Amino acid sequence: MDSLLADLRFAVRNILRRPGFAALAVLTLAVGIGVNTVAFSAVNALLFHPFVFKGVDRLGWIMLATPGNPHGELSRREFDMVSRQARSFDGLAVEGRLPLALQVDGRAEQLWTLLVSSGYFRALDTRPEAGRVLDAADATRDDLVAVVSHRFFEQRLGGGSLAGRTLTIANRTVSIVGVLGDDFQGPGGVYAPDVWLPLERAAALGVPQRLIDGDDRWLTAIGRLAAGAGDAQAGAELAAMASTLPVPRDASSKDRRLQFHPMRDGHPEVRGLARFVWIAMAVVGTVLLIACFNVAALLLARAAERRREIGIRTALGASRARIVRQLVVEGLVLAGVSGAAALVLAAWSGPLLAFFSLPAPIPQRMHLGVDGRLVAFTAAMVVIAGVLPGLLPALQATRRDIFLSMRLDAAAGGGRPSRSRNRFVVAQIAGSTLFLATALLFVRSFLNANAFDPGFDVERTIVAQMDPASFGLDGPRTMAFARELAARLSDRPGTIAAVANRAPFHVGYPIAETVSTSALDCATASCKPTVVYSVSRRHFEALGVPLRAGRDFTQAEIDRGGAVIVSESLAASLWPGRSPLGETVRLGKAGAFALVVGVVGETKHLAIENRVDPAVYRPIGDADVAHGFTLIVRTEGPAAPAIAAIRDTVHALAPSLPIAALSTMKQRLELPLWPRRTAAGFFLVCGSLALLLATVGLFGVTYFAVRQRTREFGVRIALGARSGDVMRQVLGEGVRLAMPGAAAGLVLAAIAARVLSRMLLGVSPADPASFAATAAIELAVALAACALPARRATQADPLVALRDE
């Protein structure tokens, strides 16, 4: 132990004697360790440590698996039956995400809430930050109470005392009885509600009856295992219970399974992403490998300077193992400082990772933090980054011919860079080229995706989503409200408004039906499903979709139905070579025939790729808006005044109804663009860091090599070499190191791009422009990294060099 402490003290003193070298090495390793630590902090929160409840080993989700959904939620009726029959649990609870109307200054805002059963907080053993949590008594009391999040209480309500604090939700006064801590995260994962309310008081909050006691599956169920009960026992009990659950209308009990998923294992849907997460971690780990190559090259250059010191210590009796240990300890000290910086970066990584968050209207939050697992991971990175770069230089510096090397170095004036050092430089340039070329391919793919033509007007179209049915309005009243809203907005100069059951690039699965004609009967033949929209008059004007033939719906057709409008691709497939106008089609196998009155241009619906799905547009009716509608507004002027007008008109017609989502169509397209934006950002960050490391590495190696060869350059200048000749020599050596690394990196990038070609849109895996730009950037970086050392080489003093000779 004493010798190890002595090595540590010596390492610190030796590092402080070379502050420039130490700063360069620490910065390099801090980048490599830091990006890995930040990435692992997200993986840790998502996969390894997503839930911090007391007794989490006894908690789990109860899910209903069906053929279309292996991790399904429960309806209220199904949960009540499970609660009555289950014996393996000493606590069962449910939570349901639900937007409600918050009245603020006479206007309705959408409030993201979580309705929870009376045993919810007891099952999670939750302690509030202030006040109390909801309990069983709150389910039956006359007044309504709620618990709010720390963020909502501080930011929206201004903090302070809880006494007398209330909210107006769904036109009901709700008393705030508690505030949950900022670190609380429910079993729903990244969903971050503002308010928790008693599920038993759902009727008083205006929640639709179909959610309260119907067959709608919207509740996430959790259970706490009873003493002595295990996962297998709970799973077997639930499996036997599945056949006794009520069967919803138009559904089958076949292949339904109740399952128990322990919470300690993480959410099963998230676990399905583990393979992709580990691939991303492997990519990020390559950045650390490049950093290690960088530091290894620096340590090799430094070892050449320390041969005399090592030779003297060897002559005084130090063993090779003792010297290697000393050099490795120095590497660990450098890596330790970098690891500490990486942990600080991870603790503040929330804003850094926010760029990659899903652009959805639902509030999300990933609880990042520094825990034991993250510290252990960082410590492992420190060991790797401390030992891996230092071991080879240490072994080379303690070769048996150390004294011969000292004499040769003294005679040669420092020597040239070693082959091992050059290999490390080539490897890190190859890695940076691989990342940079891949990043440019994904950036080009994202730019192509961002500039795609969806078939409708993106710049001047505004989309508003509303769900009046969730606030007590039935289908006819919702339809009347939607029509009046569209009519009032259309009265504004330069504005066209229309209503549809949904707009392109909505969240969720498309509504699809088979389409029959008089010559093709889907009841007896195999027909492909076609996307179906229910729309009002002027829908195509509002969306900016061109009418190719025929006309729009008449008001009589909107009222009675009997007409449809089809897309060009559907018309071409059903009636090739002739006009579809006047033909009849049937939606579904048993629907009534409807007259084709128009043909419109193609639009993309969910995917931004070049695929176009045929579509049928039918008149919108009361049943189409039972679960909400979409308002589409096209404006000739800026979007901001039109958005304000939509808010004002909704408030004038229905002050108690909130707007679920209101955005321009361009903002709406951020969600389908998110995968490509994330991939481009991810590789761009890694590529930029790898390029930075390669630049620093090439600069450091060239700088130390020039310093070791100062006497050689002085002799050259004394013998008549010009400064330009010396500068060209140093720059040429740097470029000769960069060229093979860049070539190898481009080959690796072409292979990687071919593997990832499905994620590229409109760009070849071997795109010449991206690869040429990468090569040019790498060459420019190599010249820039060698410029300062080359200038230093031209300043070698020939008199000093000749005097030494």
Describe this protein's structure:
The protein is of the alpha+beta class. It folds into four domains: 1-44 and 275-412, no CATH class; 56-265, no CATH class; 414-453 and 671-805, no CATH class; 461-670, no CATH class. Helices cover 49% and strands 17% of the residues. Strands 1, 2, 3, 4, 5, 6, 7, 8, 9, 10 and 11 form an eleven-stranded mixed β-sheet that branches. Strands 14-15-20-17-19-18 form a six-stranded mixed barrel. The two termini are 46 Å apart.
* Low-pLDDT segments, ≥5 res: 410-416
Helical proportion, percent range:
40-55%
- Rounded mean pLDDT is 81
The fraction of residues in strands falls at 15-25%
Query: Structural class from helices and strands?
Result: alpha+beta
**Global Rg:** 34 Å
Number of strands: 22
Tell me about the largest β-sheet.
Answer: 11 strands, mixed
The backbone outline, from C-alpha atoms, is globular
Q: How many structural units, i.e. domains?
A: 4
- Terminal residue distance: 46 Å
Individual helix count: 26
List the helices and strands and how they pair.
Elements: H1 2-17, H2 19-48, E1 59-66, E2 69-72, H3 76-85, E3 89-104, E4 107-116, H4 120-124, E5 130-131, E6 144-148, H5 150-155, E7 166-169, E8 172-179, E9 195-198, H6 209-213, E10 220-225, H7 231-241, E11 257-262, H8 268-271, H9 274-305, H10 307-315, H11 320-347, H12 350-354, H13 372-397, H14 402-412, H15 419-450, E12 461-466, H16 475-490, E13 495-500, E14 512-516, E15 529-535, H17 539-543, E16 547-550, H18 555-560, E17 563-567, H19 568-574, E18 584-587, E19 593-600, E20 615-619, E21 629-635, H20 639-653, E22 661-664, H21 665-668, H22 670-708, H23 710-718, H24 723-755, H25 768-794, H26 798-804
Parallel strand pairs: 4-9, 6-8, 15-20, 17-19
Antiparallel strand pairs: 1-2, 1-10, 1-11, 3-4, 3-10, 5-8, 6-9, 7-8, 12-21, 12-22, 13-21, 14-15, 14-18, 16-19, 17-20, 18-19
